[in-house]
Amino acid sequence: MNYELIKTDNYDIKAWVKGVNFEAEALTQLTNVANMPFIYKWVCAMPDVHVGIGATVGSVIPTIGAIIPASVGVDIGCGMVAVKTSLKATDLPDNLGKLRSNIERSVPSGRSDFGGSRDKGSWHNVPESIAAKAIALKPGFEKIAALHPKIADKNAFEKIVRQLGTLGTGNHFIEICIDENDKVWVMLHSGSRGIGNKIGSYFIELAKLDMESQISNLPDKDLAYFKEGSSYFNDYVEAVSFAQDYAKLNRELMVDSVIKALQKSDLPPFTVENEVINCHHNYVEREMHFGQNVLVTRKGAVKAGLGDLGIIPGSMGVQSYIVRGKGNPDSFNSCSHGAGRIMSRHAAKAKFTVEDHIKATIGVECRKDKDVIDETPQAYKPIDAVMKAQEDLVDIVHRLKQVVCVKG
Question: Nearest 5°: CA angle at 205, between 169 and 14?
């Protein structure tokens, strides 16, 4: 048994936290969730667990007959994608700065989009290959917008098309990595951009309003929930499903853009493996566990069913992992989604200097300025300890070391 069993007044917590930092505040949040009346069997904490808003990041929450929108969060469908190329490490140039610049030009990042930030530009500025893929999303979006017009402000669909194939901000990134066989990989982390945030924020507040008379009885107001069969339950499921599809397509399109950037970077001709690993880590899905159809919310956790391939990134200065799930039923077939923060963004900026960050990212072509200090490696748990804590959840297939990192 690799987890710690933590008893609460209601449901237990199974926590894969041996050898890693486990904040008291995170345990309080997990306990609050475990005391909700609709939990199925127990709540899980992955080794990258840390405090979140409402629900803990790095948690797995199985429920029957209810969903907590805050446990899915506002970056709905956020996740990872990775693909291996035929390139070898020796095919890369000694100076990787031009390669990073080519990627940054090919994939808009930060708050920008293909049409220009905010309301500037037109969705017709979007590359044709991306605009064509976006059309398939329109019926799903229009259905949500008809039910909840506040989600769809003026030119809403055009805005989400402009953001499709773009990276976003915060801890979102694109990396060029080298595996243990000196093969070159493209790996990136992103989600559902502005529309996921809008859907998440809207339904979190709607759940609070819907439970206004009962919210004082909750251990945390952010644990407001929709009961299955209630007015907004199906609407939320529909909206989350759309955002998850959007996030998955967003990652696929960015990988295509990065591959094209590599092809324009004076590298030898290369091919890309057919198998693309694309996994969510902020999402909800119906699954069968212990003979019961349940809703499983993974808030900063990856599905690790038997044979499932997943991605567990470290920080921007250390290695990442391609893993294969062991299908451990105790974790509801889940594993961690990364290293996990050990301190807040504000604390990291207060503690570390640009010089600290430069030292921590030696050998990585990346930004080395004050605006990325909150993402510096020391702000995260040691990825080796995180992997050790979940040996019964996944097998390691590949170890990847980044040589280029583009931050949102």
Answer: 75
Both tokens of 160, joined, read 């989400």
Whether the per-residue pLDDT at 25 is higher than 80: the answer is: yes
Buried b / exposed e along 47-81 (16+ C-beta atoms within 10 A): bbbbbbebbbbbbbbbbebbbbbbbbbbbbbbbbb
Give which of 55, 30, 51 is closest to 284, Cα–Cα.
55
Give the whole-angstrom CA distance, residue 345 versus residue 366.
19
Arithmetic mean of pLDDT, 298-314: 97
Global pTM exceeds 0.85 = yes
Residues 138, 156: contact at Cβ < 8 Å? no
What Rg do the C-alpha atoms of the chain give, in angstroms? 21
In the prediction, which pLDDT does 66 show?
97
**Whether 381 contacts 48, CB under 8 Å:** yes
What does the DSSP assignment read for 346-380?
HHHHHH--HHHHHHHTTT-BS--SGGGGGGSGGGB
Does residue 378 come out as left (phi exceeding 0), alpha (psi in the -120 to 50 range) or beta?
Answer: alpha
The pLDDT of residue 284 is: 97
- Residue 115: pLDDT band (50, 70, 90) is low
189 included as an active-site residue: no
Distance (Å, rounded) from C-alpha 72 to C-alpha 33? 13
Q: Where are the alpha helices (DSSP H) in 264-382?
A: 345-351, 354-360
CA 338 to chain centre: 9
Residue 286 tokens read as: 């119906």
The span from the CA of 105 to the CA of 98, in Å, is 11
Half-sphere exposure in the Cβ direction for 124 (13 Å, CA): 0
Choosing from 50, 172, 337, 398, the catalytic residue is 337
Where helices occur in 117-217 by DSSP H, the ranges are 128-134, 138-147, 156-163, 193-210
Query: Does the structure show a pLDDT above 50 at 117?
Result: no
pLDDT on residue 116: 59
Q: Evaluate whether 3 touches 15 at the Cβ level (below 8 Å).
A: yes
Cα gap 49→80, rounded to integer Å: 18
**Residue 118 pLDDT greater than 60, yes or no:** no
- Cα–Cα distance measured from residue 253 to residue 102, given in angstroms and rounded to the nearest whole number: 16
Nearest-angstrom CA–CA distance, 382 and 270: 34
